[in-house]
Amino acid sequence: MAQFIKIYEDKPSEAAIAKVVKVLKEGGLVIYPTDTVYGLGCDITNSRALEKIAKIKGIKLEKANWSFICHDLSNLSDYVRQIDTATFKILKRALPGPYTFILPGNNNLPKEFKKKKTVGIRVPDNAIILEMVKMLGNPIVSTSIRDEDDVIEYTTDPELIFEKWQNLVDIVIDGGYGENIGSTIIDLSEYEPVVIREGKGDLDLF
Fold first, then answer.
1. What stretches pass through the bilayer (predicted)?
2. Which of 9, 37, 68, 82 shows its CA 20 to 30 Å from the CA of 128?
């Protein structure tokens, strides 16, 4: 059964974050808050954990369109091909924030994602997840936890999330109520930005 850990976004406890990161390093699955909906994620370098998430989501791993949560833009070149100044300016203006940017992937992608031409990059405006990624030392792969009930689409109450997911994951973080609108997805892999999904992120930036 999963651990249920309370972490406050305005002052995330280093000890609590360290506990979560230890579980991620051991191949565990964690549900955490972002600046939009709660997400399910694992260490990007752990094949076994990636397989577990794919199984939970009922998809083949190589078909998964998950985003990578980064601490900031400094590690972008680890997984993304060289981007031009205009693209970088857009990222700098919008992040951290409720956006997922589709960017051209490079050859350093983990083997599970090698066939992908693009990757989705997230830098959420949420101290809990950013501290987790920073302490982990590499991105985590992230997917939102949708609800089967179409009316509510995303569960926002951490206690209800725990009730539902406690036997599927290793940790559920209670970081307060989540949002029920996903991130705005913008494709920057071609010459012009293309809006794939309008979510919480304001489109006036573009």
1. none
2. 82
